[in-house]
Specification:
By secondary structure, this protein is an alpha+beta fold. Helices cover 29% and strands 24% of the residues. It has a five-stranded antiparallel β-sheet, with no helix packed on it.
């Protein structure tokens, strides 16, 4: 009787572990990387870029001052140069160690990802 209970417990553990691994693989390799809207003019060597409201970045990713002029609002009396910052380490209201390139963020991949963005 004890043998049957042990076998049932072991198979349940294997099934649950397998489901957990499958869930991790599916969620960690999405096509859309994590992004934050940051003020490009706010970089601080200790903290990184200041995270600002997403309305300062507009709807299209990759737009910047070089691709069409300044956008966004004012923060503390100065113009905000908002741009999407991908796969960054976020601490409080600051983001660092990311990239402004969406394609680079997608290419970084994760567990279960092929590491290429296709085509």
């Amino acid at each position: 009787m004890a043998e049957k209970a042990r076998r049932r417990l072991r198979s349940s553990t294997v099934i649950l572990g397998g489901m957990g691994a499958l869930a991790a693989a599916l969620t960690s390799c999405g096509s859309e990387p994590d992004k934050r809207c940051v003020d490009r003019n706010s970089y601080d060597a200790l903290n990184g870029y200041r995270v600002v409201d997403s309305k300062n970045c507009g709807s299209s990713s990759g737009t910047s001052a070089a691709k069409g002029g300044k956008k966004g609002g004012k923060a503390g009396g100065r113009q905000v140069d908002g741009q999407w910052y991908y796969d960054a380490d976020v601490t409080g209201r600051h983001a660092d160690y990311g990239t402004f390139s969406k394609s680079q963020a997608v290419d970084r991949g994760g567990f279960g990802c092929s590491g290429s963005s296709g085509g």
